[in-house]
Amino acid sequence: MSIGYIGLNHFLAVSAGLFAIGIYGLLSRRNAISLLMSVELMFNAANIALVAFARFGYHDAQPLAGQAFALFVITIAAAEVAVAIAILLLIYRLRGTVWVDEIDLMRW
Amino acid sequence: MMLAASLAHFAAAVAPLASPPAGSTVPGANTSAGFPLLSLIVWLPLAGALVILLLPSRTEDDWGRIKNVALTFTFFPFFLALIAIYLTLFVDLGVVYSGGFRFEETISWLTLFGATYHIGVDGISLPLVLLSTLLFFVATLASLNQKTRVKEYFFLLLLLDVGVTGVFTAMDLLLFFIFWEIELIPMFLLILIWGGKRRVYAAWKFLLYTIAASAALLLAILILYFKGGAHTFDMTVLSQAHLAPALGGTLFWLFFLCFAIKLPVWPLHTWLPDAHVEAPTPMSVLLAGVLLKMGGYGMIRICVGFFPGAAKYYSLAILALAVIGILWGGFAALAQDDMKRMVAYSSVSHMGFVLLGISALTPLALNGAVFQLFAHGVVTGSLFLLVGLVYDRTHTRSISELGGLAQRMPYLTVAWVVGALASVGLPGFVGFIAEFEIFVGSYSAHHVGTFLAVFGVVLSAGYLLWMLERVFFGPLKEAWTRLKDPSAIELFYMFGMLAVVFLFGILPGKLTQLIDYAVAPLTQRLGGS
Amino acid sequence: MPYSLMWLILVAPLVAFALMFGLTYENKRVSAWLGIIAVAVADAVSIAALFSELQHPIHVQYGLGPFGDFLTFADVHFSIGILADPLSAMMVVVVCSVSLLVQVYSLEYMRGEEGFVRYYGFISLFTFSMLLLVLSTNYFQTYIGWELVGVCSYLLIGHYFKRPAAAAAAKKAFIVTRFGDFPFFVGIAFIFFRFHTHMGGAADLDFYAISGLYKTGLVSQAGLFVMAMLVFSGAVGKSAQFPLHVWLPDAMEGPTPISALIHAATMVVAGVYLVARTYPLFAANPSSLAVVASIGALTSVMAAIWAVAQDDIKRVIAYSTLSHLGLMMFGLGVGAYSAAMFHLFTHAWFKALLFLGAGSVIHGVHTQNIWEMGGLGKRMKITAWTVGIASFSAAGIIPFSGFWSKDGIMASVFASQNPVFIAAAVAITFFSALYTFRLFFVVFTGEPARRRAFDPKKIHESGAYITVPLVVLAILAAFIGFTGIPGSKQGFGQFIFYGQHPETEAVNFIAIGVSLVVALVGLGVAALFYWPRFQRFSAPALNARYARVYDWSHNNGYFDEIYQAFFVRGLVLRTAAAASWFDKNIIDSYVDGLAEGYQLASGRLRRLQSGRVQGYAVGLFAGVLVITVLALVFGSGGHLS
């Protein structure tokens, strides 16, 4: 593996790194906005992996499937963030906080 | 460009899951030709339900409009069912005789799974379609004085209608299952919201029992789908599937468990008295008149129709359940003080007759079992209406508190006497034909069992006439001196129902022939195996 | 040929019933006359049919229009039709005539009563149902008629439904007879099962088609016995034979004309008629005939003894009816087919007359207790004379009709040479004469009782609507017996018989002599106790001395009490309570327990639902991790790469 060539594994490594950061953020941060950002990181990690697989030809029959999925994911992520922030806004108005350990509306 | 092509490709891959490609047909199945009579019968109530959703429900006028919509959308299916009966009985009876179904409609649906939207009726289901559309119309008439949550009530009533008529017409097991489930939630809510004092307990009991039945049904359907070898849900195909006897037996009992809860069969019957007693009057009518019939219909159509060998093999076990149910229900009815509870237990006893017919498997007995489904529907439906009419006026159903009502309510008394005698199985009424067919038919298969079962007829005379004596005859109790006879509209549906009870009692010939055209192929298969 | 018109016999009363309830319910006069005219039409047709049969005794039967194929599909064929043969022709005349007379009688008797049109409507319905039963061509139709007459009986016994006793009696009659009906139903199923495939083109269960099949060996002797007993059970219930006799005395709660029509002349003889109609079945199995004879004899003797100790005028006659029904069964059992049918025929007239006469008395004095009557003969001459004729006939005294028919049965009993049967027959004859004349003497002779319910001066004979039927019936009761004088060549026995056309039998003078002497002794004893002019003994003193016997007899052998205590309360109601208890406490406790168990478990499990997002996230990732590891360890690696 020469230094000048960037292969699939590099992409996957970046993807894994991003994903790990996302997990760490999701589990450790208490601010809901941070959680959302962490989730976005994980989405993007998945996107990178999808596009990478597509680029390196892991689906011969449908060469663009990976990119197509990534586009779907981006769209859905955008919608999801919009909804999530709307909810957060309402929760903030109600409870005056966006700290997730102070929000347990769904407790049994 | 690449992306667009890929998207199109992706869409094509998932397409079969969502909607059928235009023009595709299932090989071997008839496509529907002409007027979609059955679909209209099944789906018109849903259209009505959607219309009701759009209507306001604030004033009395709004309520009136909702009730009119509900009446319209339950009357037309009934009218169409009458047309279907007329066409079948008087125009071309022979078509049914070919062993096939009538008014079939086939539309591709989930081709990937081999499920189609396939509906049709034969001699077993057509009487039940007529029965259910009639009873839904009558139940709507009986609901006209509903004053709480009118919109929701009639919405659920119409939704229930879709489920029930769907079950009787579905010829695809997946469709059958879906309709079976559609029926469940509306009835649960109707009991839970509009019921009597113990409605919460009764509604949950009903729901849990029926959910358990559904679980058994789904499991059985899936096993049949994967092991049946055909990978189809089409009932006409599956009924001919050749299964290993052990597998057939297992499936038979799984299906039987589901339908036994619905019928109900002893000892799975205790949800029934609670549900009937707590449900509002029109819902009791539908529960007894139509919903129990789904159990009997399923037993005949699936347990006997799919697994004739197993049905024959386990005939004695079923006979035992039937006889216990008949006697148990009869004795328990004798001990009740609540009129509605008594009628509910009489249902347990009378549905035992259906099971007796099924256990005997002779042409006459099976014919009687189907006839009894119809007969019990109209007779017990009438009885629940009559209990409701007494309750509306006295606000009690306790037999010991009532007394001498005949002196204040002569018309209601006449209707009660006629209804009770019909339930006792008096000749001239529809119940007699069914009982005669069942007992005479089942004697050929089970001598002693039939003898014990016929004793149930004595019991039914016992509890019904004893109740009549205590409630209507004898001196009038002081509390009831101000009662009035039912109103014109109540008299209309009350005597209308009794007229049906009488009509098929003196002219049963055509109906039994129609039933025989569907039952004869069944019994021929029984003779072969 | 009147046979093709015989459908009118059925249709006329049915139309009258429908019109009364549908159109003329508010108009009493029109409704009543509608009923009378309808049954008169039916009566005219049936008399024509009877005369036709008398000239040429033949068997004609046909399906009743669309009902001929009442229930027909595949290979089953249940039919409703009309059967004309000597037996049914005789029966339709009895039913229509008694119904006609009773309806005329009721014009006065029921005048002003509540539910007048309902009463007439149900009589018409009853007449239709009874005729349906009598004209039946097969077991299926018979069972339909059987149940319908039962329900009419229920409705008419309960006519005064405000009285608890009437409502209870109606229910009791229906349910007790159902105990007989359900084995009968099973019997029909048995017959269908055995003979269905041998009907040879006839409708299923057809009497005439099956009559030849019993002896062909299709059914074993044991099978035939069971079959006969199942059918006989129906007859036991309907004809109130032991042990189902308890409903008939209570049925007297109905209006008196109803007692005459239904509970004396027509419906209660349906059981006897059934046994006669299915006689080939019984004849094929001698032991079943022995049972019929024994049950008949037992019922007859017991009822005759009980009748002597009754105080209610209608109950005396009711027990008399029981006794005579038992006698008819007895006759059938010992093979006196013609004589039993002849007794059915004569009994219809004199028993209807007794009841209608009793009704005339009750109408006058407004009490049913015979000890509150007395001396009525002077004031109600027509009633007294006609009841007198009926009494002579019922007691079996020459030359009244009951004598001739009873004599035929006696001859067969004597011919059987069974000492128990002969003793029973003698006892029946003695007690019949005793209770019949006890009633007559106490009610009509002597002076009005001291403890009386009426003012003797105001008592007068009933009106013409009552007396005319009485006189007509009296003429019949007096003279109809001459149609069956033993030894005659053109008599009843040559018209209705079983098997081969009978030769003229030698007259059994011993039987005639014994029965006549015993009846006269009974009459004499009655006179010595109850006719004031000849009274030598005191009945109350005798009753006091044999108090136990008297109480037993007065209380109808305590059957009601025993049934009530052991059967109804002890067995049925207790079983009912047990079943209900079991549902509530055993089955439901399991069901509810299951539900509670789930509730408990879910109460614990829901603690996992902390509401903290990150807690869930930890669980999620831990789960993914575990699954990944498992897949790596156990999965075939190829798929993952």
Essential attributes:
heterotrimer, A: 108 residues, mainly alpha, 3 helices, 0% strand, elongated, C: 641 residues, two-stranded antiparallel sheet, two-stranded antiparallel ribbon, 25 helices, 2% strand, globular
Can you put this structure into words, describing what you see?
The complex is a heterotrimer of chains A (108), B (529) and C (641). Chain A is mostly helical. Chain A contains three helices and no strands. Chain A has helices spanning 8-28, 32-55, 65-95. The radius of gyration of chain A is 18 Å and the shape is elongated. The relative contact order of chain A is 0.12. The mean pLDDT of chain A is 88. Chain B is mainly alpha-helical and 529 residues long. In chain B, strands 1-2 form a two-stranded antiparallel sheet. Chain B is globular. The N and C termini of chain B lie far apart (63 Å). Chain C is mainly α and 641 residues long. Helix content of chain C is 69%, strand content 2%. Chain C is built from 25 helices and four strands. Chain C has helices at 7-22, 28-55, 86-109, 116-134, 139-157, 164-195, 207-211, 221-238, 247-250, 256-265, 270-277, 279-283, 286-307, 313-333, 337-365, 381-395, 401-416, 419-444, 464-479, 492-495, 509-530, 539-545, 547-554, 559-605, 613-634, and strands at residues 60-63, 71-73, 76-78, 81-84. In chain C, α1 runs antiparallel to α4 and α14 packs antiparallel against α15. Chains in contact: A-B, A-C, B-C. Chains B and C meet through α8, α14, α16, α18 and α19 of B and β2, α5, α6 and α24 of C.
Short description:
The complex is a heterotrimer of chains A (108), B (529) and C (641). Chain A is mainly α and 108 residues long. Helices cover 70% and strands 0% of the residues of chain A.
How is the topology of this model organized?
The complex is a heterotrimer of chains A (108), B (529) and C (641).
Chain A: H1 8-28, H2 32-55, H3 65-95
Helix pairs in contact in A: 1-2, 2-3
Chain B: H1 2-18, H2 37-54, H3 60-91, H4 94-97, E1 102-110, E2 115-121, H5 125-142, H6 150-169, H7 173-194, H8 199-227, H9 235-238, H10 245-262, H11 271-278, H12 281-306, H13 308-313, H14 315-334, H15 339-360, H16 363-394, H17 410-424, H18 430-443, H19 447-472, H20 488-506, H21 509-528
Antiparallel strand pairs in B: 1-2
Helix pairs in contact in B: 2-3, 2-6, 3-5, 3-6, 5-6, 5-12, 5-16, 6-7, 7-8, 8-10, 8-11, 10-12, 11-12, 11-15, 12-15, 12-16, 14-15, 14-19, 15-16, 15-18, 15-19, 16-17, 16-18, 16-20, 16-21, 17-19, 17-20, 18-20
Chain C: H1 7-22, H2 28-55, E1 60-63, E2 71-73, E3 76-78, E4 81-84, H3 86-109, H4 116-134, H5 139-157, H6 164-195, H7 207-211, H8 221-238, H9 247-250, H10 256-265, H11 270-277, H12 279-283, H13 286-307, H14 313-333, H15 337-365, H16 381-395, H17 401-416, H18 419-444, H19 464-479, H20 492-495, H21 509-530, H22 539-545, H23 547-554, H24 559-605, H25 613-634
Antiparallel strand pairs in C: 1-4, 2-3
Helix pairs in contact in C: 1-2, 1-4, 2-3, 2-4, 3-4, 3-10, 3-15, 3-19, 4-5, 5-6, 6-8, 8-11, 8-13, 10-15, 13-14, 13-18, 14-15, 14-17, 14-18, 15-16, 15-17, 15-19, 16-18, 16-19, 17-21, 18-21, 22-23
